[in-house]
Amino acid sequence: RLDVRAGLRRKDELGLVSEAFDEMAGRITQLLRSQKELLANVSHELRTPLSRIRVALDLAAEGDAQTARELLPDITEDLSELERLVSDVLTTSRLELVTDGASGVPPLRLERVDANALLDKAAARFHTARPKHRLEVQVDGTLPTLEADPVLLRRVLDNLLDNAGKYSEPGTTVKLHARAEGDSLQVDIQDQGIGIESEDLARVGTPFFRTDRSRARTTGGVGLGLALVRRILEAHHGRLTLESQPGQGTTARVVLPGVGAADTPDGRLAAGH
Ligand code: ADP
Question: 110 CA distance to ligand 1 centroid (A)?
Answer without folding.
Answer: 28
